[in-house]
């Protein structure tokens, strides 16, 4: 049924639903929009929607992303007790130092807070430039607070209604809109040849895609307040889901020793921790991570299967569409047979709305055996072509492409960020696995934490872990 809808995409529109999200959740208003909104992020005819999926932007952003993952992963924790000298993501995760009997230093920390802060900093810096977090260091905590009541805002619950945590979420959104409004105003000043404040003079590291987006909005006369609402939607989309996906995926791999060993063996040729024998001023050079991201995605089927299973199990994606011309949706023969009935056809009239909660299918036992269990091998199939058998006695596990149709978090064809998000998740996960030894605090066995419902993905209860760098 979902495939049938996407095949008739020209008869539906996401525009009214996106406008509703912009107004209710991201603080925009209908007066700030123009028909067609040429050059903006949202809107199916826009230029911006292509900036993260077409050249040269996708290659440029992906290249910077991988280099930043390689550079920063060995700095996941700094092994310093001074809060002033810690990285921003350490300060929000309660890092504490501990010396083992062998003399090795280990860190005790909250894993989800650490991962969220680390990946969030990476995402914001790559897209929006480092100055934004330098001037407004609370952007990521505010995104977390805002996201915690995202569904309440989606329902239109106003801040004056007594709803736990809602006022704080609205205040966090206000602070986010202020800082993004200022950044857009400063960029506009620079484009007009004016001199900005000293703290904002370095915006050269804002990604080329985002700069192109800002210029399109300036050219088409959009206000900086409207630009801030669109930028907030982007920051929310590129941080919230990736942070939780990496955490859930990492915990499930670490909690299964056999799976952990198999994944490490698979990614070994493409993700390496390199140590230098040279020293600077008497201090050893820090280790470096080397990633071959294309082969991690294309030649590591088990790693990719763990990512897909994590997305299936925890993502809560929705597709919203308004019907713009009458259509008929016919379910597949497979769906009809699973429900023991004849094939059904549904008529949708112009003006109807369609909501697809993909998680219902992902967690339906008709489509997935033991849907509440983490089983990445369900996404692997055996490839037994005759040519392969001549070279290999054992069949090769490959990702089942037929399962990729619009069923998980980033598989909606309308998504503009899934390629970038995939590289971020896979690259960060592989880099952490080869760089850090992570165990539950106090020698406990691994326990997958409880989860709570979220906007894009179910979020975990935080857990305490011990980290030390692999030798």
Automatic annotation (TrEMBL):
Transmembrane regions: none
InterPro entries hit by this protein: Cyt_P450_sf
UniProt biased composition (Basic and acidic residues): 383-396
Molecular functions (GO terms): heme binding; iron ion binding; monooxygenase activity; oxidoreductase activity, acting on paired donors, with incorporation or reduction of molecular oxygen
SUPFAM superfamilies reported for this sequence: Cytochrome P450
Region (Disordered): 383-407
PANTHER family in the cross-refs: AHBB, PTHR24306
Protein name, as recorded: Cytochrome P450, putative
Organism field: Trichophyton verrucosum (strain HKI 0517)
């Amino acid at each position: 049924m979902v495939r049938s809808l996407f095949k008739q995409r020209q008869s539906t529109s996401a525009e009214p639903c996106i406008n509703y999200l912009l107004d209710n959740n991201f603080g925009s208003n209908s007066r700030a929009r123009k028909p067609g909104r040429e050059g903006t992020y949202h809107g199916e005819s826009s230029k911006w929607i292509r900036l993260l999926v077409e050249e040269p932007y996708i290659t440029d952003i992906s290249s910077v992303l991988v280099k930043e993952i390689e550079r920063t992963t060995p700095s996941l924790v700094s092994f310093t007790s001074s809060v002033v000298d810690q990285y921003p993501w350490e300060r929000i995760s309660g890092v504490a130092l501990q010396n083992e009997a062998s003399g090795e230093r280990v860190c005790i920390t909250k894993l989800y807070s650490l991962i969220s802060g680390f990946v969030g900093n990476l995402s914001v810096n790559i897209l929006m430039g480092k100055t934004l977090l330098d001037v407004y260091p609370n952007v990521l905590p505010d995104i977390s607070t805002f996201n915690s009541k995202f569904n309440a805002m989606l329902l239109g619950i106003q801040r004056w209604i007594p709803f736990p945590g809602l006022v704080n979420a609205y205040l966090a959104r206000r602070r986010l809109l202020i800082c993004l409004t200022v950044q857009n105003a400063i960029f506009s000043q620079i484009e007009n040849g004016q001199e900005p404040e000293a703290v904002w003079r370095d915006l050269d590291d804002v990604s080329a895609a985002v700069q192109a987006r800002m210029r399109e909005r300036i050219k088409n006369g959009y206000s900086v307040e409207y630009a801030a609402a669109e930028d907030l939607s982007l920051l929310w989309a590129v941080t919230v889901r990736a942070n939780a996906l990496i955490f859930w995926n990492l915990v499930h791999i670490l909690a299964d020793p056999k799976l952990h060993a198999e994944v490490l063996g698979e990614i070994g040729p493409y993700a390496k921790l390199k140590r230098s024998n040279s020293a600077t001023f008497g201090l050893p050079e820090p280790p470096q991570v080397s990633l071959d991201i294309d082969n991690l995605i294309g030649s590591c089927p088990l790693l990719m299967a763990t990512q897909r299973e994590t997305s299936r199990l925890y993502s809560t994606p929705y597709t919203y569409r308004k019907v713009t011309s009458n259509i008929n949706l016919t379910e597949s023969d497979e769906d009809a047979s699973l429900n023991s009935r004849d094939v059904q056809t549904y008529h949708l009239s112009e003006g109807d709305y369609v909501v697809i909660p993909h998680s219902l299918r992902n967690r339906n036992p008709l489509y997935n055996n033991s849907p509440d269990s983490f089983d990445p091998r369900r996404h692997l199939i055996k490839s037994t072509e005759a040519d392969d058998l001549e070279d290999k006695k054992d069949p090769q596990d490959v990702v089942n492409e037929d399962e990729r149709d619009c069923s998980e978090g980033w598989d909606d064809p309308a998504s503009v960020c899934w390629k970038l998000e995939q590289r971020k998740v896979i690259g960060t996960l592989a880099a952490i696995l080869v760089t850090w030894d992570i165990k539950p605090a106090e020698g406990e066995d691994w326990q997958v934490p409880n989860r709570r419902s979220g906007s894009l993905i179910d979020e975990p209860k935080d857990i305490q872990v011990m980290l030390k760098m692999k030798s």
